[in-house]
Design a protein that fits this description.
Blueprint lengths: L17 H17 L3 E2 L5 E3 H7 L5 H6 L1 E4 L5 E4 L4 H10 L9 E10 L11 E10 L4 H17 L5 E7 L6 H13 L7 H9 L11 H5 L10 H16 L5 E2 L11 E9 L7 E7 L3 H4 L7 E7 H10 L12 E5 L4 H14 L4 E3 L6 H10 L4 E5 L1 H6 L1 E6 L5 E5 L3 H11 L1
Parallel strand pairs: 1-5, 7-8, 12-13, 12-14
Antiparallel strand pairs: 2-4, 3-4, 5-6, 6-11, 7-9, 9-10, 10-11, 14-15, 15-16
The structure holds zinc ion (ZN) (2 copies).
InterPro entries: aa-tRNA-synth_II (IPR006195), aa-tRNA-synth_II/BPL/LPL (IPR045864), Anticodon-bd (IPR004154), Anticodon-bd_dom_sf (IPR036621), His-tRNA-ligase (IPR015807), HisRS-like_core (IPR041715), HisRS/HisZ (IPR004516), HisRS_anticodon (IPR033656)
EC number: 6.1.1.21
Protein name: Histidine--tRNA ligase
Amino acid sequence: MGQYKKFKGTQDIFGEESKYWYFIEKKSREIFLKYGFKEIKTPIIEPTELFKRSVGESTDIVQKEMYTFEDKGGRSVTLRPEGTASVVRAYVENSMINLGSPIKLYYIGPMFRYEKPQAGRLRQFHQIGIEIFGTDTPISDAETIILADELLKSLGLKNYKIKINSIGCKKCRPKYREALKEYYKTLLPNLCHDCQKRYETNIMRLLDCKIDREYAKKAPIIIDHLCDDCKTHFNKVINYLDSMEIKYEIDPKIVRGLDYYSKTAFEIEHTGLGAQSVILGGGRYNSLVEEIGGKETPAIGFGMGIERIILALKKENVEIDNPEKIDVYIAYSGENTDIEALKLSKMLKNEGLKVFLNLSERSIRNQMKHANKVNAHFVAIIGENELKTDTVTIKNMTTGEQFEVEKFWVPQILKEKSLLE
Ligand SMILES: [Zn+2]
Ligand SMILES: [Zn+2]
């Protein structure tokens, strides 16, 4: 049991759970590479100011959810609550603009938010995301959404919906905000406490409030307030998606929580997940790079929550291979059998088999028990007899079949057998 417990909203990931992580990370990397993305790893700690500036002072994240502390040098440090701000910071700090535009980056890693933990919402959660810097073309928005769709499909998911909206730009959004303020003015006393505050600070969030959903239904929609530039952009994106036969819905309530988005915003919802149903979200953010000190650079990206994807995979009963399966356990007993065991282990690994070499001083009987616990498919046994005759005894742990083979043939026989079963 132990004296120490992990914090609420964090988890230890191991055993059968691990296969989902291998699978999701592997598939994501494959697809990102196919689309010409390169990986970026940024620090988990960043200056607090970065998130205040980028995510926005008025957002729930900055107001109440960040893990912020002072380090021994008196700096205000924050565990990153999302991935985009750090990637943008890195883009500016490393002058990646010189690497040619657009540049395509992806990241995989933990994020931290102090929220009330529930299914699909953890305090340490993990995201996989992409960012494209240096292009404002509708085709880059379309490719981002096409990639997201291809990724989810390749994971084996079917029950999801792509929802798109345009949230306008610096030119047209102020007018839309005014229209919203006008609409909500008389309703204000009826709204929830949070929305009453957001009315002044972040009025568009009133549209995605879960409590005040009824009022949002009749609210003016942003598509009707877009400037010509935003309207043309949105129509082109839609047109590309139609040409590629991507299924989507236009949803005026997609506003995204963060201040830095502009134009295209999208979310992908899984239909089986209840309250925390958004498995992927993203959009265009054309002013963020400039906001944190870079040259004006348009950008677009998305983030996908690994924990929620796992819930979705389980919900849809997607079968996933476990890469941690042990093909062969090597058991040995008697003088000099340990050296033979090391050599056999090397031979088998060279053939691509997954090998668990016994590392403890114990009887063959107890080694067999251990082989069973680690779910080894085969056990290769080297005793004094086998050592003399240059053979190995193989036991198939699934069928119970046991036979002796000349050592030379062991790798080939095991490889064939483990492929067959
Ligand atoms: Zn606009
Ligand atoms: Zn509300």
